[in-house]
Design brief:
358 residues, binds nicotinamide-adenine-dinucleotide, seven-stranded mixed sheet, 2 domains, single chain, Rossmann fold, 14 helices, two-stranded antiparallel ribbon
Length: 358
């Protein structure tokens, strides 16, 4: 049976529906009823059958347009954004019409940003197909494109009208992309969700086999955790910052790698290992805590070799991080309850030491 999570409050709240196949005519109809046109945005890495299935499920009286962009982060660009909004204008989309994002976080982010700006905002639906998009980017209303000066520098907070999560999409993901999503799920286990920690610890082989019921439980729990945090702090003025656990060093690693050959969630995994070690050096957690973290990651066949990076090569990227406020770096460290919290009180000399701790 489908699970439904309500995210946000008031007129911009929306439902996230999770099941093995939530892409049904009735789920779509609930939000497309008053639309005459939809523009589906997808990328050329998404299996063709997913697009066909989506088209089949949309009502016959809706005119369907498709905009396919090349897969990969470089498509989350101003150039692609302009193509999308020009297509909407040429086809005379109005505010009763909709955009649908069918793809991973890249497609979700550029679709959401296009929706937030065209006609000062038209509706959009998220149909996340990657694990990372299902547990993270499709929920929370952050939308963005990249510019030459940096990733996600142009964007908006803009909620979708509906998010449809189907675990059946996970079958076609590469191991790297699957593991990237696991990284974000793992993060939620250090943001207060003990159920996720227990599943990852006790059912590791079922997770790596992508067993549908176990994956559904992990996805639902992840969305619940994210939803609770983003509903409390829609525009990232406070508590929402804890979602960046592992991201300060994760982003530095991604930037060092030129955003190539390193899936986002893998960088977050390394970032969390580093943060756990800094938390230990700050006297906040025990050594056994970061060792256990590594053990869970290893049992999930995740790459834990963060030490292939040296602190000195990441340092230049740290101060560019969005978590820098008024020239001060904020970190999400772990407290004794193994839960992330935001602070600017730490000893920076522990950073390089953390890279030497096994
Ligand atoms: N808005 C947010 O809150 C938020 C949060 C985290 C990440 N992000 C953004 O998300 C993006 C990363 O998302 P991602 O990891 O999904 O990457 P992605 O969208 O680039 O997808 C990764 C690859 O997987 C392929 N793919 C997706 N679903 C598939 C499926 N079911 N079967 C086979 N192949 C499939 C895609 O074609 C692509 O080649 C980044 O741009 C990041 O900035 C946004």
């Amino acid at each position: 049976m489908a699970k439904i999570i309500h995210v946000g409050e008031g007129s911009t709240s929306y439902k996230v529906i999770v099941s093995s196949n939530s892409l049904t005519k009735s789920n779509l109809k609930a939000v497309t009823r008053s639309s005459k046109k939809v523009l589906i945005i997808t990328d050329d890495g998404i299996p063709k059958s997913y697009l066909k299935n989506l088209k089949d499920k949309l009502s016959e009286d809706i005119k369907i347009y498709v905009h396919k962009i090349p897969k990969g982060e470089t498509s989350k660009s101003f150039t692609e954004y302009v193509k999308i909004v020009e297509k909407l204008a040429t086809q005379k989309f109005d505010r009763s019409d909709l955009l649908i994002a069918l793809g991973g976080g890249m497609v979700g982010d550029i679709t959401g940003f296009s929706a937030s700006t065209y006609l000062r905002g038209i509706g959009f639906i998220q149909i996340p197909t990657s694990l990372l998009a299902q547990v993270d980017s499709s929920v929370g209303g952050k939308t963005a494109i990249n510019i030459e000066q940096g990733k996600n520098l142009v964007g908006a907070f803009y909620n979708p009208k509906l998010v449809l999560v189907s675990t059946s999409f996970l079958e076609t993901l590469t191991n790297d992309e699957f593991n990237s999503g696991l990284g974000e799920i793992f993060k939620y286990s250090y943001l207060g969700n003990k159920k996720i920690r227990s599943i990852l610890k006790n059912k590791a082989s079922k997770v790596t086999e992508r067993e549908p019921k176990v994956m559904e439980d992990l996805i639902v729990e992840s969305i619940k955790t994210k939803s609770k945090i983003v509903t409390e702090d829609e525009k990232e003025n406070g508590i929402r910052a804890i979602l960046n656990l592992g991201h300060t060093f994760g982003h530095a690693i991604e930037a060092k790698c030129g955003y190539k050959n390193i899936p986002h969630g893998q960088a977050v995994i390394y970032g969390m290992q580093i943060i756990a070690r800094i938390s230990f050096l700050e006297g906040l957690i025990e050594k056994i805590n970061y060792i256990e973290m590594d053990q869970i990651l290893n049992s999930l066949n995740l790459d834990t070799n963060f030490q292939k990076f040296r602190y000195a090569e990441l340092r230049p990227y740290l101060m560019n991080d969005k978590k820098v406020s008024g020239g001060k770096l904020n970190l999400i460290l772990l407290n004794s309850g193994l839960t992330g919290y935001k602070t600017d009180k730490f000893d920076p000399s522990n950073f390089s030491k953390a890279f030497k701790l096994n």
